[in-house]
Amino acid sequence: MGMVDLDEIRGEVDSALAGFFDPATLAGGIEPHSDDMIEVIEGFVLTGGKRIRPVLCVLGWLAADPEPRCRAPLIDLAAGLEMFHAAILIHDDVMDRSATRRGRPTVHRVMADLRAGTEQDGEWYGTCAAIVLGDLALAWADKLTCRRLTADQLGRVLPQIAQMRHEVTVGQYLDLQSAGGRSADADLAEMIIRYKTAYYTVYRPLSIGAAAGNASREVTRVLHHYGMPVGKAFQLRDDLLGVFGDPLVTGKPVTDDAREGKHTALITHALTAASPPQAMKLAQLWGKPDITEAEVDTVREILTATGTVRTVEHLITDHHRAALAALDTPHLPTEVADALRTIADQAVERDR
User: Fold this and answer.
1) How many structural domains does the chain have?
2) Residue 219, domain CATH
């Protein structure tokens, strides 16, 4: 097994996604008058994105089968996860009422603008169209995932994919249900992290790839012990970036998380550690529908003054160390372990 090149894997996944949108590939499955649907989803999928889930899926397979006979089924499976992620993001942006994603207009905004100035309500059309386009991306994810796997591989992979979809949907619901509640319930914040990110972003893509490669129990166990802390660290970094990140880098306004009142570990810790005046101010601002950037500055000051930022940074460091310790094992190919270390580093040190 040669060196695992993460950029090469991303390139292969991007090529598979671009190839999927080729008219010859989609022929027979698309009706007339739906070109705009294809163009909008294609633009969304092929522009930006870290591709962390497909990369981890490939690494999970290579952990189980370092020299796969053919890479095409593996890359399609990984690309299918990215297509599924696009479906999740399209719907997530509707729920969060986000105007931008990756520095570009979100799908519901693009679709709304197509009807701007007409008799039809552009905003409502955009929302409805985004729901439909997200569903279509979900169907395409299945098409990509299944088109090259053997029956045996599908038998191992499909239960893992079903579990991933269950987990991320439950996580989305908990996130939606708890938003704006201004609760100090740390257990709920931990559950949301576990379902929305630790499982969905890191462990489940690894386990799906590992299942396709017919991984041993030992390999699956190592991937779990690595994936869970990396996923938690990834989400905690996301929470910090949601308030302290540079919008020009993250591609999203810093007001989004605050406006939605996201129930994050940041907020639960701050509410617990805050003085009564700080807690009252935070409760007033977090979840305020029309929060301004100046008010987000006040939120930042409270998060810093309560020691919340320092505490979360320490948690990220602890999760990072736990993930690296899990890789100290003879059960993974050296090249895969090295690539997973790189991904763990990138998950905690990123600025977007």
Assistant:
1) 1
2) 1.10.600.10
Best CA proximity match to 30, nearest among 109, 121, 140, 122: 140
pLDDT of 32 reads 59
Strand, helix or coil for residue 253: coil
Whether residue 1 is contained in a domain is answered as no
pLDDT tens digit sequence for 243-286: 999 998 888 888 988 998 989 999 999 999 999 999 999 999 99
Residue whose entry in the numeric block shows the structure tokens 């100035």: 117
**Is 341 inside a domain boundary?**
yes
Range of the domain at 111: 6-349
Q: Which helix (H) or strand (E) holds 218?
A: helix 217-244
- Both tokens of 236, joined, read 């905690």
Which stretches in the chain have pLDDT values below 70? 1-3, 27-33, 117-120, 181-182
Instruction: Please state, in angstroms and rounded to a whole number, the distance separating the CA atoms of residues 280 and 45.
Output: 41
Q: How far apart are CA 284 and CA 291, in angstroms?
A: 10
Domain presence at residue 334: yes
Q: Specify the pLDDT at position 65.
A: 95
Domain annotation covers residue 304? yes
Q: pTM to 2 decimals?
A: 0.93
H or E segment to which residue 104 belongs: strand 104-105
Give the single-character DSSP code of 203.
I
